[in-house]
Amino acid sequence: MAKLIRSYDNANMPIVSEGNDTLDLVYFNLLTLAPGERHDYRLPDHESLAVVMDGNVDIIVDGIAFDDVGKRKDIWSGNAESVYAPVGAAVTITARAKSQIAIAGGLTEEPLTPFRITPEEVDMVDVGSAETHTHRQIFHILGQRQAGRVGRLLVSELYADPGCWSGYPPHKHDTENGNLETDHEELYHYRFWPEKGFGAQGIYNAGETPQNLVTQNGDTFLLDKGYHPTSTSPGHRGYIFTILVGRHRRGLIQSFDPRHDYLLDAFPGIQAMRDKFR
Fold first, then answer.
1. Domain range summary for the chain, segments of one domain joined by +
2. Position 64 pLDDT exceeds 90
3. Region at 36 (left for phi over 0; alpha for psi -120 to 50; beta for the rest)
4. Percent helix, strand, coil in the chain (nearest 5)?
5. What is the per-residue pLDDT for 278?
6. Using 50, 70 and 90 to split pLDDT, how confident is the model at 136?
7. E strand or H helix at 272, and its extent?
8. Which of 22, 100, 164, 225 is the most buried (most CB within 10 A)?
9. Got the DSSP string for 241-255?
10. How far from the centroid of its chain's Cα atoms is residue 191's Cα?
């Protein structure tokens, strides 16, 4: 069942890895490195994407050097820069400045080739509107542009306006059903601006009473199944670092709660959002 992990100092140790009690496919680590500090990792069962949240680092993947990665001072200051590492790769990250790096991983067996994703290659889709309290922008870091170069991993950053909803209308993706829905696990890592901000994460299965969890800066939500609308409180910008991993295929097909089908045409950009994830 879904699980909310409250913000804590993970000391550069994985927040989600193999053997956790909720997700089978997803890996997630959050690194905080001082200038000159080095972190090494190798994931024998996961492909991964090292996303520089802030700061500037050098990354080596199986001997291939990617220098000077990271161009923004924080997550609110432009698009991310990142490096893809195939399953089983030896990865070394060395900080040039104080840096925070998110490691997003997805279970796979397909060995591929490392590559860099520049800020210019990040693909944005605009969804919703301020008038309907649904406006958000989704920045696909590892998305359609990288099709054929990765296994079943999707990585994005979502920015929600104050007081707006995302993941809305409510949708799920926990059943493999042809062209109607795919089975994808998902992880959300939340941030807010100002940092004292907060939001809410809904979760429910068909026929159940929805649960609402209060989310705060640095919390992480693990989703294995169910509908999962999200909201951000007025006066605070919301941010979600998102990892999706398909159990059978990479492209995501969302299934919307049929009770709210009438909302699919009420908010601009819903179809564009669906198309970008496929």
1. 11-277
2. yes
3. left
4. 5, 50, 45
5. 87
6. very high
7. helix 270-277
8. 164
9. EEEEEESS-SS---E
10. 12
Tell me what pLDDT residue 82 has: 98
Arithmetic mean of pLDDT, 207-218 = 95
User: Whole-number mean pLDDT of the chain?
Assistant: 97
Q: Is the CB of residue 228 less than 8 Å from the CB of residue 203?
A: yes
pTM score, whole prediction: 0.98
Residue 265 burial (C-beta neighbours within 10 Å; 0-12, 13-18, 19+) = exposed
Beta carbons within 8 Å of 131's beta carbon, 6+ residues apart: none
Arch. (CATH architecture) of 11-277: Sandwich (2.60)
Residue 276 to residues 105, 167, 219, 222, 272: CA-CA distances in angstroms?
20, 14, 26, 22, 6
Question: Residue 24's CB: how many other CB atoms inside 10 A?
Answer: 12
What is the DSSP secondary-structure string of 161-194? Answer: -TT-EES-S-EE-EEEETTTEEEEEEEEEEEEES
- Which amino acid would we find at residue 58? D
Beta-strand pair 174-177/211-216: unpaired
Q: What is the DSSP letter of 12?
A: T
In this model, does residue 1 exceed pLDDT 90? no
User: What would you measure as the largest C-alpha separation in the chain, in angstroms?
Assistant: 54
Q: Which residue, chain included where needed, has tokens 């998902």? A: 186
